[in-house]
Amino acid sequence: MNLQDIKILTELLVKRPKISIIPHKNPDGDAIGSCLALYQYLRKKQHDVCVVSPTDYPDFLKWLPDNDSVLVFTNNSQEALNQIANSELIFTLDFNSLYRADTLTEALQASKADFVMIDHHQQPDTYAAVTYSDSTASSTCELIYKFIEKLGDVELIDQDIATCLYTGIMTDTGSFKYSLTTATTHRIVASLIEKGANPSLISTNVFDSYSIDRLQLLGKALDNLVFIEQYQTAYITLSANDLKQFNFQKGDTEGVVNYGLRIKQADLAVIFIEEENEKIIKISFRSKGNLDVNVLARKYFSGGGHINASGGRSEESLEDTLAYFLKILPEFLSLPEAYNSTI
Ligand code: 5GP
Ligand code: MN
């Protein structure tokens, strides 16, 4: 975000517009954390603002300050659509292509509002008047901190805002260990702790809050794991039946894909989840080093994301999706662009 962007944004905010803040479908800690932090900041600046989520999200995020203010489309669709239709300024956070807003995509496309994108994924679309996109940032929450800083308002970050931002940075960095965790990330995190974020409480709320079913579903997933030595690839499948057996709740499969990378020789980990209600296979990819799973997700599975973490989907059966993956895997691994040259 350069000086020109700050000028445009300041001019937009001076008009006291009606504001909506939108996370991506199935928001994670970074998406909800960044939306609630920005919501609280804009409220402090006396703005008329509301967070509208395309779908519901896991219980382990519902303790966040001001969670009750979030309007969830799947719970209250008319109110969510009215809010968007009446908005004059719309922030889209933690995604960079309108299709990721899922249930809200059409309403966003139809909107006459000015858009501001704040995001850290690869290859942003160009729908926004202000695009603050930095794929080297650990998380959108890190960018929200910098955004508030650029507007000269760091002193407005209170304990609630700090708690939301800390949560997003912690979840998107895998507790401060993924490759985009930098000295800047740690400086921001230190500042958030000084402002009142409680690391051990936040970690307990997010990570040590499993149901027994969720923990046993993880056991099932690990049992289903297959490692292909030749391609240094670990994959997990979870069928709709597996999910049913363990009384699946939203968020229960979050983080499961990462276990594949625990294998020393594994460079690529994949999970295929048969989502019964949506009749699609949700796919998550994770990698080590410069193996670029954003390319894998974009080229073969209508998805995208980051170099080391991305997602996609398939409308085929679980069996056919897996067969397709196994067919394209050697081809993908032989592409020059499968190995990102920037890291
Ligand atoms: P996950 O596998 O945890 O759903 O997503 C991993 C990362 O990829 C997240 O940053 C997420 O926002 C992104 N991602 C997941 N699915 C998609 C998708 O379909 N398209 C794009 N562009 N990004 C995705
Ligand atoms: Mn993120």
From TrEMBL:
InterPro entries listed in its UniProt record: DDH_dom, DHH_sf, DHHA1_dom, Oligoribo/pAp-PDE_c-di-AMP_PDE
One of the record's GO molecular function terms: nucleic acid binding
Pfam family, one: DHH
Domain DDH, first and last residues per copy: 18-169
Domain DHHA1: 238-332
Gene3D superfamilies found in the cross-reference section: 3.10.310.30, inorganic pyrophosphatase (n-terminal core)
Membrane-traversing stretches: none
UniProt superkingdom: Bacteria
Name of the featured protein: Exopolyphosphatase
Origin species: Capnocytophaga catalasegens
